Amino acid sequence: MSAAPFRHVAVIGLGLLGGSVLRAVQQFLPGTATTGYDADAGVRARAREIALAGTVAETAADAVAGADLVVLCVPVGAMADAARAMAAGLSPDALVTDVGSSKARVMAQLDQALPGRAVIPSHPVAGTEQSGPDAGFAALFRNRWCIVTPPEDADPARLAALTAFWEALGARVELMDAEHHDRVLAVTSHLPHLIAYTIVGTASDLEEVTQSEVIKFSAGGFRDFTRIAASDPTMWRDVFLSNRDAVLEMLQRFTEDLTELQKAIRKRDGDALFDHFARTRAIRRGIIEMGQDDARPDFGRSDHNGAA
Amino acid sequence: MSAAPFRHVAVIGLGLLGGSVLRAVQQFLPGTATTGYDADAGVRARAREIALAGTVAETAADAVAGADLVVLCVPVGAMADAARAMAAGLSPDALVTDVGSSKARVMAQLDQALPGRAVIPSHPVAGTEQSGPDAGFAALFRNRWCIVTPPEDADPARLAALTAFWEALGARVELMDAEHHDRVLAVTSHLPHLIAYTIVGTASDLEEVTQSEVIKFSAGGFRDFTRIAASDPTMWRDVFLSNRDAVLEMLQRFTEDLTELQKAIRKRDGDALFDHFARTRAIRRGIIEMGQDDARPDFGRSDHNGAA
Fold it and tell me: Across-strand partners of B173?
């Protein structure tokens, strides 16, 4: 579309996601005004130094004043407080969205914190293991999916504008029911993080294998898990508390499957192991064909391509 | 060292590891003769087409004739058969090594298959998710650790030559007891693969979340696991059968830790979750400081650096 979907975008929370939204707006929607706020004064100061937003305000209410789109980029456990803190400054016709990793509970909290306001939650399925105001970059959303979970009574014009906004930032938009989102993400994101945090913890706690050995020989597979397990602990604590039931259900299924493989190893059932291991390649092929991962071996890590 | 550690290197098994050993010898030890063999005639034909070795022989015995180093690069379950198949051609003074991911059982099998011969097992902790004769490349071992597990009566001169060989290929060598190797690798490699194969299987089997959704929204973390779960199924079946006891023990510890986190989620114990998630970042830092992973966010995947 030719016109920018919003005149003025305010971002609350200036970490990896908030910073990336602002960088992407600066790059892909250069005529759009940007303001930002973070509850941490040190983060606000750093955001000013690196010009993360046109203006970094001293209060949330000041940051959202005059904005027609507000993007809440705080951990899901802090959404309600962040919404209440900015409410006094919010324009009556502003649209509020967020980038939280769980949606049903966030939607309920935002509805309660901002009665009568237009709220359409979003979840751009994108990120890295880094955090803080310096972690954001404009290309984060490129070719990634952004799930939007509109309430039943969402205004179609506002929904169209929000969709156009994420598409302008490079994302592909999928509309979904909030409850379904939470079940899909429980398996594609939350369970993988829980498993990665667990195995990295297990390896750290071994008595007979030293931490130095775990680090040295991590290229056998373990190092992949350490990337995810280096993600922001506050964000992930909140995700598991917020999407508790779906995560527990997916975890139950995972544990059943793991028990089955454990039994196959114990019984030396090579055929059962082979059959299981042979059918998981197709999913990887699908992910690469859909442009959702780097097709090069080992993610194209620099130790193989001569860059390091 | 100035002189090449071996005059003639024979490789049995022309997949990712065998191909990489040959490519690395061609690049880093250009005066060394190379011969190769694979039990699969199609692989032998392809290896000839791409000049993977100076000569690709039609039998294992022919391939090792005249070699002073033989590197067995077959799945650990096929080591004993591969050793027996080549035994008739093996020079009396040749050193035999391998690249298998488990060591105690492989060592026992090679000792039995090659009585009285010099055997010093190796395990270069390096690989990608790809397999086959086209998957190998010379830089695979660069900056990776290669664990060598010499038997107590190993000849020091041969051990020194083997060490020099792996170092010439770019690896750093660590000597270790075979049993300790098997426990270290159970946690840094075998358990991560088992977990990744499990979670990818769990996601494929869900009824209420479609395979297409799992693929689309895999950038939330899941896609990382699919890379490892795309590894060669025969190789990994053999690893779990061969290193059964150490894997089962590490799996038991992992399950205990996972149960603890599950309980924290169920009880909504945010402090326990935060404490666990906050202590796993240090391991990632250690891995990056030791040069064992790409320091760029998200492994430097191409979707973030503009390469794709």
Answer: B146
Query: Could you tell me which CATH class the domain B180-295 is placed in?
Result: mainly alpha
Rounded-to-integer distance, Cα A264 and Cα A275, Å: 11
In the structure, what pLDDT confidence band is assigned to residue B300 with cuts at 50, 70 and 90? confident
Give residue-wise pLDDT tens across range B107-132. Answer: 999 999 999 999 999 999 999 989 99
Residues of chain A with CATH 1.10.3660.10: 180-305
Interface contact B287-A223, CB threshold 8 A: yes
CB atoms within 10 A of CB A108: 12
The domain covering A180-305 belongs, at the CATH homologous superfamily level, to: 6-phosphogluconate dehydrogenase C-terminal like domain (1.10.3660.10)
State whether B284 and A250 contact (CB < 8 Å).
no
- Here the tokens at position A297 are 């071996």
Domain with CATH 3.40.50.720 in chain A: 8-176
Q: What is the pLDDT of residues B278-299, one digit of tens each?
A: 988 888 888 899 888 888 888 8
Contacting residues of B for A307, CB less than 8 Å apart: 300
Query: Which pair of tokens denotes residue B205?
Result: 């089997």
Strands laid side by side in the A122-124 sheet: A122-124, A145-148, A172-175
Which residue in chain B has the smallest CA separation from A254? B202
pLDDT at res. B306: 38
- Per-residue three-class SS string for A74-110: CCHHHHHHHHHHHHHHCCCCCEEEECCCCCHHHHHHH
Q: Do A248 and B262 touch (CB under 8 A)?
A: yes
Dihedral sign of CA atoms A98, A100, A104, A108 in order: negative
Residues of A in contact with B283 (CB under 8 A): 200, 203-204, 211, 214-215, 226, 229
Per-residue pLDDT, A307: 32
Contacting residues of A for B292, CB less than 8 Å apart: 215-216, 218-219, 223
B165 CB-contact burial (10 Å; exposed 0-12 / middle 13-18 / buried 19+)? buried
Poorest-confidence range of A233-237, B13-17, B177-181, B280-284?
A: B280-284
pLDDT over threshold 60, residue A121 = yes
A268 — phi, psi (to 5°)?
55, 45
B8-176: CATH number: 3.40.50.720
Task: Please identify which residue in the block is written with the tokens 């028990």.
Answer: A259
